[in-house]
Amino acid sequence: MNTPTMLRALPADHRQRLMHFAREVSFPQGARLFDENARADRFWIIRTGSVELDTYVSGRHTAVIETLGPNELVGWSWLFAPHVWHLGATATTPVRAYEFDATTVRSMCQDDPALGQAVTQWAGEVLAHRLRSARTRLLDLYAPYSTGSAV
């Protein structure tokens, strides 16, 4: 199952309202967008390029959870208190993206309950997808193998 994109998840009027506040940004390959436990004050929708989501595994290396591409949401932690990143993110290629200020979008969502519900539903679906991906990836990396497949 693919991650829900803003285009598929939000009605046209809600997309247009959000895009009014979008800022075009770019990141070079290798740029760190954010680190785990840092303040989540913005989010992005990738236009071109790819971003890896990762997590630190104590006593091991950083584990890549998922690779995101065009039209995908980078970041959901900005929407849910305490507004700190639960993962890290690095541009694996040059990236062009739309950037959104989290405070502005949260305020818009509070002022317009229908927009808030649509954005929360979208982010919740992305979050559920990312949790499934993280579980699968971590099992692939660290599960004991007895018959050649993850338990």
TrEMBL record:
- Residue stretches making up the Cyclic nucleotide-binding domain: 6-108
Q: Which Pfam families match?
A: cNMP_binding (PF00027)
Report the PROSITE patterns cross-referenced here: CNMP_BINDING_3
Q: Output the PANTHER family linked to this UniProt entry.
A: CRP FAMILY TRANSCRIPTIONAL REGULATORY PROTEIN, HTH-TYPE TRANSCRIPTIONAL REGULATOR ARCR
Q: What is this protein called?
A: Cyclic nucleotide-binding domain-containing protein
Its source organism is: Streptomyces hygroscopicus
